[in-house]
Amino acid sequence: MGYTYDFINGTDIYLYQDEEMFRMNSDTALLANFMKIKRNNRVLDIGTNNGALLAVANSFAPSCLIGIDIQEKAVALARYNMEQLNIPHAQILLGDVKDMKMPKVDVVICNPPYFPDHTTSAKNETEALRIARHEIYLSLDTLAKKSWGGT
Questions:
Q1: N or C terminus: which one in the chain shows less Cβ crowding within 10 Å?
Q2: DSSP strand E in the chain: where?
Q3: Minimal CA–CA distance to 113: which of 127, 103, 100, 99?
Q4: How many C-beta neighbours within 10 Å does residue 34 have?
């Protein structure tokens, strides 16, 4: 498989997407248009994938952009997209956000996994899509309870 170069609907931002991983869709565009970020805010994107929401967040002139993903391939692609979009101040981190100590942030953005991880749930065919769409590593409940005020 390969990569495509696509725009985020409702913006003039183009970025690369891996054909085998979670791809931007209407959810991405809706979240991008819903974000309320003030100038100089510190922004954390959980499950950043290709960096689409960080790229849009950058248009608000934040002081800091941090993206985290548990998938190495996603982290590499997000870093590449930030480089291509000339967003050098974005930090893209590899790891499980549940186990990481985060600096204090003002805004948390996330397009979370939205299918429970039950054995009876219909699962996506690839591991990358299962991780992105099912609560394998991060449940919505855990996401909501986690403190992002810094530790």
A1: N
A2: 3-7, 14-18, 42-46, 64-69, 90-94, 107-110
A3: 127
A4: 8
Closest of 1, 5, 25 to residue 15, by C-alpha: 5
Residue range 77-123, pLDDT digits in tens? 999 999 999 999 999 999 987 788 878 899 999 887 555 555 555 54
| Gap between the Cα atoms of 57 and 141, Å rounded | 24
**What is each CA distance from 20 to 3, 38, 109, in whole angstroms?**
9, 34, 23
* Integer Cα distance of 89 and 26 in angstroms: 27
CB 10 within 8 A of CB 32: yes
Of 28, 25, 16, which Cα lies nearest the Cα of 110? Answer: 28
